[in-house]
Amino acid sequence: MRKFQRFLTSVVAFGVLYGVYRYSFRTDSEGNYLFLLPGENGRSSSVEQRAVVSDETEKTVDLSRLANLTGFEYVIPNDICKENNTFSELLGVILVTSYVGHDELRSAHRQAISQQKLLSMGLLRIFSLGVIPPTESSIRQVSIEAEQRLHGDLIQGNFVEAYRNLTYKHLMSLQWASQHCRGAKYLLKMDDDIVFDPFYIQNYLSDLNQGDEQQNHLLAGYVFRSKKVIRLQANKWYVSRNEFPGDVYPPYLSGWLYITNQKTARTLVAESQAGSFFWIDDTFITGVLAQRLQIPLTALNRWFSSNSEFLDCCIRDMKRYAYQCDYYVGPNGGNGKFIMEFIQELERCYDNACYQRPPGKSLTATCVAEYKQQINPDHGTAMISQMKLK
């Protein structure tokens, strides 16, 4: 009898404990107990749920729009990142905004460093174009399509090439990368008339520690602050008060070259569809939109040279003394061959372990002295003139 009572007591106790266990803890839709589910990287499932909720707070992107431009579509689409699974986890995608007629500049970039070399570094390059303007008689669409068949590195949107359409091209680049190259960790946006050091930037991106990239925004480049709005109508960058009512732009990044990530690109593209439009692309996207979203800017101003002469002097000193260059980004000075020469000399310098410039041999001092001594029989003394970043 006592054995039966102990058995009955045990059954009742077990039933009570099971009821507490079964109904006191949260379960998912499949009946799994949430506290027993493993979290990614050792985190609990509650963190995973917050991450999902955070992702869901991102605004959706209408792929048929670029800001206020409706009916957007690709004249030349590109799925280069999906054509080979090895592209799925890239370190970065280089988005080069290029004028449709700048085929020689694009060729210079390809000759300076090939797509295959970039891929070996974990990088991929794409050129973004618009439609040929009706005023252009020397460019033909069949030539652009032949270029794509040969190189496979173009995207072209159905908006006409124009200064006031640069924002569309910029947004198309970010939208394409965030939709078609989602495996790329970072995005590098640059103009086609810019030279840059891909080897240094690859090392920078490899060492960049953002923690959880899905939770952090990134906008890094040359930061402009307190730039006044140009009200002179004769200026190419004249802006009316209807277009921008304020007198000073918010801080923004130069469109020459800047670095961002997937989350930031998606967020900027989505935000561009939610408010007013502005045609100066870098000011609008990395300034107005970034300020609206409270995305901080990271200054990499020391990377940039504002004139091509300093980069020319870098090449000279790499050849003569194996000195490292003080700059990593700058203009090509209107010379497509300069893009090839700069990167090829950089590669030779990295392979042969160039030296840091010694004290007293600053590039500024030696380069200015060099150019002051050069006499051009057609144009007089070649003096360095400061060039403003776009």
From TrEMBL:
<keyword id="KW-1133">Transmembrane helix</keyword>
<keyword id="KW-0808">Transferase</keyword>
<dbReference type="GO" id="GO:0016758">
    <property type="term" value="F:hexosyltransferase activity"/>
</dbReference>
<keyword id="KW-0328">Glycosyltransferase</keyword>
<comment type="similarity">
    <text>Belongs to the glycosyltransferase 31 family.</text>
</comment>
<keyword id="KW-0735">Signal-anchor</keyword>
<dbReference type="InterPro" id="IPR002659">
    <property type="entry name" value="Glyco_trans_31"/>
</dbReference>
<keyword id="KW-0472">Membrane</keyword>
<dbReference type="Pfam" id="PF01762">
    <property type="entry name" value="Galactosyl_T"/>
</dbReference>
<keyword id="KW-0812">Transmembrane</keyword>
<dbReference type="GO" id="GO:0000139">
    <property type="term" value="C:Golgi membrane"/>
</dbReference>
<dbReference type="GO" id="GO:0006493">
    <property type="term" value="P:protein O-linked glycosylation"/>
</dbReference>
<protein>
    <recommendedName>
        <fullName>Hexosyltransferase</fullName>
        <ecNumber>2.4.1.-</ecNumber>
    </recommendedName>
</protein>
<keyword id="KW-0333">Golgi apparatus</keyword>
